Amino acid sequence: MRDIDHFIGGASVRGTSGRFAPVYNPNTGLEQARVQLATVEEMQAAIANSVEAQRSWREVNPQRRARVMFEFKRLIERDMNALAELLSSEHGKVVADSKGDIQRGLEVVEFACGIPHLLKGDYTMGAGPGIDVYSMRQPLGVVAGITPFNFPAMIPMWMFAVGIACGNSFILKPSERDPSVPVRLAELMMEAGLPAGVLNVVHGDKVSVDAILDAPEIKAVSFVGSSDIAHYVYSRGTAAGKRVQAMGGAKNHGVVMPDADMDQTIADLMGAAFGSAGERCMALPVVVPVGAETANKLREALVPAIEALQVGVSNDTAAHYGPVVSAAHKAKIESYIEMGVSEGAELVVDGRGLVLQGHEKGFFVGPSLFDHVKPHHQSYQEEIFGPVLQMVRAETLGEALKLPSEHQYGNGVAIFTRNGAAARAFAANVEVGMVGINVPIPVPVAYHTFGGWKRSAFGDSNVHGPEGVRFYTKIKTVTQRWPTGEAVVDSSFVIPTMK
Ligand code: NAD
Fold it and tell me: 128 alpha carbon to ligand 1 midpoint, in Å?
């Protein structure tokens, strides 16, 4: 059995805890490797290594740091196919989608290549007699990222590309379910010229996460994962005096107006609901048609489209999506389908019990469609994170607007319409952090910023873009006056003002 080791101080490091988590190939359902789970002491040793590495990394000028990012980008492009295959073999998403996962992370690396410009401060000459004021953004020191299974390339890059470019050293604690790609990314950063210890990857579970949250040397923590754990990380991290941004779960709605371009909308809904087996925090698992006629048209078109979907192994180029990540997750998704039925929703297409010939043990779940889902259903209120599309019918746009606005999650939402005024009002009033107008998956581009509202994000800071630079730096403002040789005797006990 292959062991997946930590990557600390620029080298592979064998764990000593004797604790491991299994890493499956979701296509076969078989355990293919095991990953080390660090002890508190191992995490502390990695943090000490990061503290040391940061002392010299912060002195490297921003343009040189950017050069590492440029080279890292080149190396990822060189290794794109191998990385995507490795990613699919542990996550299960189809290889084309794994390339998208890597590419979206790479776009944040491209953003981080602009770090010299992004770190420039402000300067005011002559703020007072002979007085100038300037501000600078300085790195925090050691920062950490704790990431989920569903984007093992993109989400680590959201975090470490910006954090490291800002002059911090970075501890990455990736998901224990698909840990190989994060290690490869760290190796490629080294190959790109990053000094040893500036990016350390420590594998683990709650023990490692708690060690990060409690370590006084770690100044900021970025977390992405499910909401209860996000809330826990936020509470414990901020109680320890850290800056924390903790992104959580989601239940994104797609509102379909009667005037929407129906063919395009169906195509968009299919990709957004079932792509990556629905295991995306920006998936669209809820569709809200406005008016009975829209609902009936939509249902009529969705059923054959869903029945035509091909579920296959992740390297099958004809497959629309692959297996889900684990047997436990497959069981959880199927239990939500059962729940929906018992709550009285109409199960129009049932994806349970799918077995793929030749891959009987793989974690495959067929696509499901529910109609007549009601807001009080628990299966609507909670995140399923699988290939299940729930239709909640609304009579008016006002009613449709209330659904995502009143939902516990507020990550993304989309409206499909040709009516600019309706779309504009919807975008202005919906209580959700990221809005798509005829765009099903409104993940903002790298130089904007990503973040949901309500239980989809704890803390008041978004990920990547200029917000990411702010998160990983602190401002220092210098007020200076240089002696001119003339005697100045103006000792004052009154607060200096600009009178
Ligand atoms: P998860 O919450 O199970 O795990 C996330 C991280 O937390 C992992 O690194 C894991 O090792 C760690 N962890 C797990 N249990 C822990 C515990 N008890 N204490 C401390 N740390 C713990 O999430 P997941 O299943 O890997 O990912 C899917 C979830 O992530 C979904 O809810 C999805 O919506 C969410 N997600 C959100 C976003 C976003 O930006 N809002 C993006 C991607 C995924």
Answer: 51
- For residue 403, give the nearest of 421, 437, 377 by alpha carbon: 377
Q: Which residues are catalytic?
A: 281
Q: pLDDT for 308-336, tens place per residue?
A: 999 999 999 999 999 999 999 999 999 99
* Number of DSSP helices (H) and strands (E) in the chain, helices first: 16, 23
Calculate mean pLDDT across residues 94-103: 98
- Those residues whose C-beta lies under 8 Å from the C-beta of residue 296, and which sit 6 or more positions away, are none
For residue 237, give the H/E element and its range: helix 227-239
- Return the SS3 of 300: helix
Question: What domains does the chain contain, in order, with CATH numbers?
Answer: 2-248+456-478 (3.40.605.10), 253-437 (3.40.309.10)
- Strand, coil or helix: 99: helix
Q: What is the mean pLDDT of the chain?
A: 97
Q: What is the pLDDT of residue 489?
A: 64
Cα 222 to averaged position of ligand 1 atoms, centre (Å) = 12
Q: What percent of the chain shows pLDDT beyond 70?
A: 99
> How far is residue 471's CA from residue 260's CA, in Å, rounded to a whole number?
39
Residue 495's pLDDT is what? 84
What amino acid is encoded at 248 in this protein? G
Question: pTM of this prediction?
Answer: 0.97
Answer whether residue 242 shows pLDDT above 90: yes
**Ligand 1 atom nearest to CA at 227:** 32
Ligand 1 binding pocket (C-beta < 6 A) is: 146-151, 173, 175-176, 205-206, 209, 224-226, 229, 247-250, 281, 383, 385, 411, 452, 456
Close Cβ partners of 48 (under 8 Å, ≥ 6 residues apart): 217
CA distances from 364 to 147, 311, 322, 326 (A): 24, 8, 7, 9
Q: What is the pLDDT of residues 18-58, one digit of tens each?
A: 999 999 999 999 999 999 999 999 999 999 999 999 999 99
Nearest Cα to Cα of residue 302 among 344, 351, 268: 268
**Structure-block tokens of residue 391:** 């239709």
Provide mean pLDDT across the span 377-384.
98
Q: Which residues fall within 8 angstroms of residue 421, CB to CB, at 6 or more apart?
A: none
Strands ordered across the beta sheet of 30-36: 2-4, 30-36, 20-25
- Atom of ligand 1 minimally distant from the CA of 147: 9
Distance 61 CA to ligand 1 centre (A): 34
Is residue 457 within 8 Å of 245, Cβ to Cβ?
A: yes
Closest CA relative to residue 407, chosen from 439, 437, 377: 377
Label residue 191 by pLDDT band (50, 70, 90).
very high
For residues 463 and 66, give the distance between their C-alpha atoms in angstroms, rounded to a whole number: 19
Q: Give the Å distance between the CA of 146 and the centre of ligand 1.
A: 8
Q: How many C-beta atoms lie closer than 10 Å to residue 427's C-beta?
A: 14
